[in-house]
Structure prediction request, 365 residues.
Amino acid sequence: MKYAEFISRVQQEAGGADVDFIRRVINASLGIEKPMSAHYSEDDLWVILEALGGARREGRAPARPEYRFVTAPALEGWWFRSSSYVIRDDLWIEPAPGAELEEYPLKKEALTELVADLEELGRQYQPGGVGADGEPPPLGPRERDKLLAFYVKHGPLGLKFRGVFGYGVVIKEDGQVVEDQRVHVRTTPFGRHGEPKKDLLGHFGLYLKGKCYVSKPPETGHYIPCRGPDGRKRYLSLHLLYAGYREDCDSVLFAAWTFSCLAQQLASGVVPGFLLSLEEALANSRPAVGLEARQPARLSVRWEPTSLLDAAYLRLFSLGVGGMRICEDPKCGRLFTPQGKRRYCSDRCSERHRKERNRKRQPAI
Ligand SMILES: [Zn+2]
Prediction:
């Protein structure tokens, strides 16, 4: 249906909500990518009604709605990491049993380190290696250690979260039987045609161990309330979602390698292909526009990444614009943000390279 018709349908279903408010909910929930000329589906209607209902149930004033119900956790500006990780079956990297989940500070400083660490993690990876059985070759002890150290410091890359662009709750009904509480996952940015739709467990597949719903509000951690057609409430526990989330080592190393290649290109000033790759990398993030109601009104625009990997790409981009350099010590080659005319990432590298050059200049005796 068309935009105007869509709005009146929402109004009808929601019982006469303010048009301006509905417009804002549409913008926030379906993304500003979806133009007014786009086609609006029954699913879209559902997402908006859920967002409106959520805002009401929480007793929030319609003037300043929050869109928790259709927003992926990472969009709210936080990310989780576990206090320790294990590698299972030489394949999965996951939170260690009994480990604590903690919030990862998605702040500038942490992200700058993330860019350097991710670049380093991917640099030595050789993609396309094949082991004896045709599978990727087993991880070496060095790779294992590096991966674990990276995870303890930064947490998972969010490879699966990356595709989630926000979700609401869908109840699947099979005749009279309520099958289960399902969460509707959008796996591509809003507004694109032919987007596949899956429930949460379907989307995460083997990346998610066990259930992430509970029947009572969890005592710790954030959650998203959901409601069944029978009126019964369930809760999507974000804690369980993150605690049960794991990633496969090979995909992580591959993602790190891709990131590393791009970072090196950027630092050495090779631009062709960079913008394209960046566009792809940023497709999962979305700009959030805010207008502060004060005099004079202030407009703020920021990008909201849906995963740690996207956050790293965003940070790489902003660092790249500021000019990153590769350490000139051939034994190092680390990326760094130069202050002034620095050519080395550290004094150590500068000193080492100087000695090396001096040694080469000395005539052999
Ligand atoms: Zn260096």
User: Anything to note?
Assistant: Residues 1-67 form one domain. Confidence is low (pLDDT under 50) at residues 58-76, 169-181, 190-196. The two ends are 86 Å apart (CA to CA).
